[in-house]
């Protein structure tokens, strides 16, 4: 079976690291499933999800020029139509919710999300710099 981007293949877990799992795809080919691609929910400890020797179905995400194969378990799983439309639960862990900033029905593309993030980040950095400069007495400090 040829390994092509977008295809689903069976593989066996041959190794587990903190960042992901190595999957033997046969024909002397090994790919990596990053920890973020193991499950739809947050995975803190990959050892709780996978074990060496386990057979898994993976989707080929990428094949690099150097032969590295990027895989996903969560994208290989078939989702019912009702479940696919549900939003994933977010794990904000103390961060303010951004859901009130834009309507959920609107689909943002990557560029607009990145631009929004960069603008927000720049605003926060400016505010932080202004706040710390005021505490130190502004530019130049004291002249004696």
From TrEMBL:
<feature type="compositionally biased region" description="Basic and acidic residues">
    <location>
        <begin position="119"/>
        <end position="136"/>
    </location>
</feature>
<dbReference type="GO" id="GO:0003729">
    <property type="term" value="F:mRNA binding"/>
</dbReference>
<protein>
    <submittedName>
        <fullName>RNA-binding protein S1</fullName>
    </submittedName>
</protein>
<feature type="region of interest" description="Disordered">
    <location>
        <begin position="73"/>
        <end position="144"/>
    </location>
</feature>
<dbReference type="GO" id="GO:0006412">
    <property type="term" value="P:translation"/>
</dbReference>
<feature type="domain" description="S1 motif">
    <location>
        <begin position="6"/>
        <end position="74"/>
    </location>
</feature>
<dbReference type="GO" id="GO:0003735">
    <property type="term" value="F:structural constituent of ribosome"/>
</dbReference>
<dbReference type="InterPro" id="IPR012340">
    <property type="entry name" value="NA-bd_OB-fold"/>
</dbReference>
<dbReference type="InterPro" id="IPR050437">
    <property type="entry name" value="Ribos_protein_bS1-like"/>
</dbReference>
<dbReference type="InterPro" id="IPR003029">
    <property type="entry name" value="S1_domain"/>
</dbReference>
<feature type="compositionally biased region" description="Low complexity">
    <location>
        <begin position="87"/>
        <end position="102"/>
    </location>
</feature>
<dbReference type="GO" id="GO:0005737">
    <property type="term" value="C:cytoplasm"/>
</dbReference>
<dbReference type="Pfam" id="PF00575">
    <property type="entry name" value="S1"/>
</dbReference>
């Amino acid at each position: 079976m040829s390994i092509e981007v977008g295809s689903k293949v069976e593989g066996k877990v041959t190794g587990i690291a903190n960042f992901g799992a190595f999957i033997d795809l046969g024909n002397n080919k090994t790919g990596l499933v990053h920890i973020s691609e193991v499950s739809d929910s947050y995975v803190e400890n990959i050892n709780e999800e996978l074990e060496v020797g386990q057979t898994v179905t993976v989707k080929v995400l990428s094949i690099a020029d150097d032969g590295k194969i990027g895989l996903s378990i969560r994208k290989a799983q078939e989702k019912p139509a009702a479940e696919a439309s549900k939003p994933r639960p977010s794990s904000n862990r103390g961060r303010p919710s951004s859901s009130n900033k834009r309507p959920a029905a609107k689909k943002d593309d990557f560029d607009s999300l990145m631009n929004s993030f960069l603008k927000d980040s720049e605003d926060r950095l400016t505010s932080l710099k202004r706040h710390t400069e005021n505490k130190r007495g502004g530019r130049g400090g004291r002249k004696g």
